[in-house]
Specification:
By secondary structure, the protein is α+β, with helices and mostly antiparallel strands. It has one helix and seven strands.
């Protein structure tokens, strides 16, 4: 009977370690909604990938930098890969004033 207890201790320790290894220690959760404001996910970058693992769109926050003696503040880079089978894709950009700009890739 004592042998069974001694054998049970490493089994229990292994099970606890298994649960700790496979449980996420830090998960991304949306912050709770307050006063009707929708919940938000926060991070430093966002990438959207296809089923093959290729990045199709990304948003990256850049740090302040100095290039050639010129200082640049932090910024945001947006990258989008547009796929079209017939080559007639158009990007429509509208600013706050309502001015619309159409961009044709490859033009």
């Amino acid at each position: 009977m004592k042998t069974n207890r001694i054998a049970a201790v490493p089994i229990v320790i292994n099970l606890v370690l298994l649960v700790l290894v496979f449980s996420p220690l830090r998960s991304a959760f949306a912050q709770p909604s307050t006063e009707g404001i929708p919940a938000v996910l926060r991070g430093h970058a966002l990438e959207i990938v296809d089923d093959r693992g290729r990045v199709r769109a990304q948003i990256i926050i850049t740090q302040p930098t100095t290039v050639g003696g010129v200082s640049y503040p932090e910024g945001t880079l947006y990258g989008i890969q547009i796929l079209s089978q017939n080559g007639e894709s158009v990007i429509r950009v509208v600013d706050k004033a309502g001015k619309e700009t159409l961009i044709k890739p490859g033009a």
